Amino acid sequence: MIATSMIPRVALRTALPLRRGFATSRVDLANTLVFLEHKKGNFAAATLSALTAAQKLGGDIDALVVGGDDASQVADKAAKLPGLKKVLFAKHADFANNLSEPLAPLIKKIVESNSYTHVCTGHTAVGRDIFPRAAALLDSSQVSDIIGLEGEDTFVRPIYAGNAIATLKSSDKVKVFTVRGTAFDAAALEGGSATTEEVKPDGVESLTDFVEEKVSESSRPDLATAPRVVSGGRALKSADNFVKYIEPLADSLNAAVGASRAAVDAGYADNALQVGQTGKIIAPELYVAVGISGAIQHLAGMKDSKTIVAINKDADAPIFQVADLGLVADLYEAVPEMLEKIK
Amino acid sequence: MRASLVNQLRVLVPVKRTIDYAVKIRVASDGKGVDQNVKFSMNPFDEIAVEEAVRLREKHKDAISKITVVSVGPPKTADVLRTALAMGADDAIHVEVPDKAVANPLEPLGVSKILNEIVKKAGEEEEVGLIIMGKQAIDDDASQTGQMLAGLLNWPQATYASKLEFSSKPEKGAEATVTREIDGGLGIVKTKLPFVMTTDLRLNEPRYASLPNIMKAKKKPFKKYTLADLGLEDQVKPRQEILKVAEPPKREGGAKVENVDELISKLKEAGRI
């Protein structure tokens, strides 16, 4: 890796304000690798947030794109992302499905041969699967799901389902971290002009075979990134009611559909819709919780929403403690009335 | 001690003692951690892991030689190991660290190094062929240890599993189909024993330990190691210094509206609809 003093200017050209003044940033410029997760050529939203986080570190930023036959096309697309110096791409049939066993050694090799000081990606199912394995190979203690950066070695992350916020300083030589998508703005898709470079993987070892993916098809906005979300809980009582009450309300607000764990476990809604500590963690402009009591684990997934609306029959439900607007009412009356009046 | 057959599978289940999931935690007055004078229990995802191991034996009779539970933690961690034994595990390994380690906890990397060593140690007696563990601990929410351990062992990993199936008897080299919870849906992978699997919520519904089983658990084999015994004292030192633990910003919630009209007009005022 050739590092010249001119390089940081590339990062300065980005539209996003760079935080300067990290104690060590002048002496020890960060040299960051961002793993760009993509599906069918579209970058995962949290990946673009990870790029924004990387920009806050200052220093050079390169990106890594992996895939099957599409890897070089996606790399060309990545080259337009703001603030990147170089996009490395690696092509192999086993990279197409983001399997951790071949990718973790690849990341280790690239990080070591280019002397990266930081490597990050989004805290998505893919990032959570691959990165700790890569961190162990690099002998680095990963920092998961960061929501803030206070220096090149100081990270902020939620613990205990978001009921406490820890600030920690890492002494690792290579800082490996994953970024919470909702905590950083997504980087723009245009504005940069990085070079691309192919990395030839050596000895790809596939220990796991990908069989298939069953992704819920939906014409609604994506839950993770939708500006509005309508969620249903146990009070819906059945999958039919979920379809009858929650979905039309979501559609009338052009919102994504979410659900509490209780609703998912009872089979009212699909697993992928679960909002909470162990499901999706989201922060939309508007979150409408319908028939959700508001357990700690659910709040962990949505309490950073800008405006929270709660509709619940029980005036003492914990959800009302976080709701900006609470309506104590039977959802079977309130939701149809809302539908009528929103039109 | 039951006779161990070469083609039988030994399952290792790492578990963690965490603050009970229902406790509303409080930030400690020194601002470096959270108040520890609360109820602790087994990390919920680890209960699911123990349950899955026990069910695997129930489903494939005589295929599993032994289910060994292991935990790294202060003396009280023995309680959660006893719970796991009462759920149906056969023996327990406790890697005991001093109480002060609670304030400066081991990181997933350190724990995965310890577990890596335990897999070797246990293997001297009988080889471990499958590791089932929780997808994350509800205290540090890191979601790293299983993946790190798989990386150190160079075993395949099947994370966030909601279904595990073996088409044949689960023995070394047998193929497993694992359904994983991924963003947007489910992903299905095939892998071969030995591997590391981490459990998602929907894998199963853990059983309660019955009183007779709790009594029986007290007599099951229970091994103890210290970090010095494993020669790992220096290798597992935390790499991260906790500078501060703070309360999250408080939401100003609580305002109630009278009816749907007021709700809609307030949302319109705020520009949300």
Automatic annotation (TrEMBL), chain A:
Could you tell me one molecular function GO term of this UniProt entry? flavin adenine dinucleotide binding
Q: Where in the cell is it found?
A: Mitochondrion matrix
Q: Which co-factor is required?
A: FAD
Positions that bind FAD: 234, 260-261, 274-278, 291-298, 312
As to how many cofactors bind and how, the note says: Binds 1 FAD per dimer.
Tell me which Gene Ontology terms the entry assigns under biological process.
Answer: fatty acid beta-oxidation using acyl-CoA dehydrogenase
Q: Where is the Electron transfer flavoprotein alpha/beta-subunit N-terminal domain?
A: 32-214
Q: Would you identify the family this protein belongs to, as annotated? A: Belongs to the ETF alpha-subunit/FixB family.
What is the protein's given name?
Probable electron transfer flavoprotein subunit alpha
Q: Which organism is it from?
A: Kalmanozyma brasiliensis (strain GHG001) (Yeast)
Recite the lineage of the species: Eukaryota, Fungi, Dikarya, Basidiomycota, Ustilaginomycotina
From TrEMBL, chain B:
GO terms classed as biological process: amino acid catabolic process; fatty acid beta-oxidation using acyl-CoA dehydrogenase
Q: Explain how, and how many, cofactor molecules are bound.
A: Binds 1 FAD per dimer.
Q: Which InterPro entries match?
A: ETF_a/b_N (IPR014730), ETF_b (IPR012255), ETF_beta_N (IPR033948), Rossmann-like_a/b/a_fold (IPR014729)
SMART domains the UniProt entry points to: ETF
Source taxon at top rank: Eukaryota
- What CDD domains would the database entry show? ETF_beta (cd01714)
Question: Which chain positions lie within coiled-coil regions?
Answer: none
Domain (Electron transfer flavoprotein alpha/beta-subunit N-terminal): residue spans on this chain: 30-234
Obligatory cofactor(s): FAD; AMP
* Compartments reported by the entry: Mitochondrion matrix
**Gene Ontology terms for molecular function:** electron transfer activity
Q: Would the keyword Transport be found if you checked this record's keyword annotation? A: yes
| UniProt keyword terms in alphabetical order | Electron transport, Mitochondrion, Transport
GO terms under cellular component = mitochondrial matrix
Principal location class: mitochondrion
Q: Which PANTHER family match?
A: ELECTRON TRANSFER FLAVOPROTEIN BETA-SUBUNIT, ELECTRON TRANSFER FLAVOPROTEIN SUBUNIT BETA
Q: How does it assemble?
A: Heterodimer of an alpha and a beta subunit.
Q: What does this protein do?
A: The electron transfer flavoprotein serves as a specific electron acceptor for several dehydrogenases, including five acyl-CoA dehydrogenases, glutaryl-CoA and sarcosine dehydrogenase. It transfers the electrons to the main mitochondrial respiratory chain via ETF-ubiquinone oxidoreductase (ETF dehydrogenase).
The similarity comment for this entry is:
Belongs to the ETF beta-subunit/FixA family.
The name on file for this protein is Probable electron transfer flavoprotein subunit beta
The source organism is Kalmanozyma brasiliensis (strain GHG001) (Yeast)
